[in-house]
Write a structure and sequence with these properties.
There is one protein chain. The protein is α/β, with parallel strands linked by helices and about 230 residues long. Helices cover about 40% and strands about 15% of the residues. It contains eight helices and ten strands. The strands form two sheets. Strands 1, 2, 3, 6, 8, 9 and 10 form a seven-stranded mixed β-sheet that branches. It has a three-stranded parallel β-sheet with strand order 4-5-7, covered by helices on one side. Helix 6 packs parallel to helix 7.
Amino acid sequence: MKSVSFCFDDGFRASADSIARIFSNRGVAACFCVLAAPELAEDPFIRGARIADWAYWRETVAAGHEVAPHGYAHEHLGKISVEDAQASVQRTLDAFTRELPGFDPRQTLYHLAYLAAPAPIVQWIGEHTLGARMALGNAGRNDGAAWSRGKPVDCMTFGPPNAELRAHERLARFMGEEDGWLVLVLHGLDGEGWGTVASAALEQMLDEVLSAGVAVTTPNRFLLSLESI
């Protein structure tokens, strides 16, 4: 069965409110990929935005959505030393373990900032989590049968201009011509963040996926279901 996961990076508060409502109203879950220390981020889209706090993410998990690590302060792990990159990932996992009840690093995908990291870091992340979500060049499509614990997961994101149009086109191609598991990465809604899309466009995409009989699931749930087969 075809499956799609929608990931929303960076933790924009106003967008998260809308995203959670849109997905909950349809009986499916969204995946929010958030930072352990967003107040330290240098990315201007994050520094200038209202980012949700841990109390909010605890409520989001309790409501049935997925909250997963996206990094400590949105560092590009390829631009710091291997040792510093490992330390950053470990700080992130420690913060999630401390702040989110029931969080287990071994049961989560690690959603890389900038969708990239050097091979030694990707391998290290895979040894401590389900694996790393990154851009592998397959336009976000994954073969679940070929995945095993620790292997990276491919994703596709959409920046300006026309993020929602290109996301819609990617979904349509997947539903019409492909199989497997598609992982799409979006950010904020209605003008918030980088590569913003309209709430109405997100609702349309989600409705089309569900109407086509494609499963909407979160990355952790999809990967853990593979391990239970």
